[in-house]
């Protein structure tokens, strides 16, 4: 009898994650049918903004993952999203060739389309690009890690693969981590600090791995320097875009990449704001979570962030809901909107949640006692395996 219910349950779990295809698919339709008129761009943008309201009213999902779920279909969703991202960027560059800046009316229409690219394509790139890349760079095999790095390069953020794995996961919740938002820090302050600091830290980590002391001098070891590889690849990619698609191609590419990175760092901001650990081993409430069903499935499990940090090698469909972690006021869509646009309101709400748990922003939280097998070894936490 138990097996009779197992298969429908697995189908429901898998099918719910297909929601992650909605926004990338919508973005792709916007690109391949554009450019659009002024009035049409407004109609295209409104459904994207409605995701904030949908997320605020989303039902709760605290169910734990099913056992013995075969990874292939869940990996298939990641690969489908990744493929869609590569195709969408090519379609976006073709889109740029149809923008027209020859008259005031055409200027206004083109600017409206660029704004829509920021809202629609930028949001999609943060999902099918960066969120998928985040999942892949945690995998142990070279193929998935390389695919993750390529997806990050499409947003000009390949160095995130190094900094996130070897920097953030080691130092989160401490002053050494540039991706942990400090108590009282606004998103604007966090953005100005974290972007250059993460790149600088990623470069430093690679220098340390290769034993490079002076980065100014030419050194054959730079051929194996992953951050330098990423910068070189991104530079060649931008030169190629400029030569083939001109300034318009570079413009649309930059708009979607900037918007995607802004959303990534907004997510970083809300995931660790004001949480500080007092010991080497992380305690349970060192990441903010949400029980939003919409966020969980649209962002392929990213919202179960506490379990991700405690089990870094666990795939997204196996992440568990944490009862002990502090909870965001809404899902990621609505909370990111609060953090970016209504930051004082965001800080008030999260401080209230910490008070409910008997904590204060910036309070040093003690570690859990060691638990055997809690945090599986992940290649790359101290030094990534050679590519």
Order of helices and strands: HHHHHHHHHEHHHHE
Biggest sheet, spatial arrangement of strands: 1-2
Give the rounded overall mean pLDDT: 88
Total helical segments? 13
Number of strands: 2
Supply Rg: 21 Å
Number of domains: 1
Main sheet attributes: strand count, strand direction, barrel closure: 2 strands, parallel
> Rough shape?
globular
List the helices and strands and how they pair.
Blueprint: H1 2-17, H2 22-32, H3 38-56, H4 71-96, H5 104-136, H6 142-153, H7 160-171, H8 187-210, H9 226-272, E1 276-277, H10 293-298, H11 305-310, H12 332-341, H13 343-356, E2 364-365
Parallel strand pairs: 1-2
Helix pairs in contact: 2-4, 2-5, 3-5, 3-12, 4-5, 4-9, 5-6, 5-9, 7-8, 8-9, 9-12, 12-13
Task: Give your account of this protein's structure.
There is one protein chain. The longest helix has 47 residues. The protein has a two-stranded parallel sheet. The relative contact order is 0.14. The protein has one domain. Helix 3 packs across helix 12. The protein is mostly helical and 387 residues long.
Q: Keywords for this structure?
A:
disordered N terminus; 387 residues; mainly alpha; 13 helices
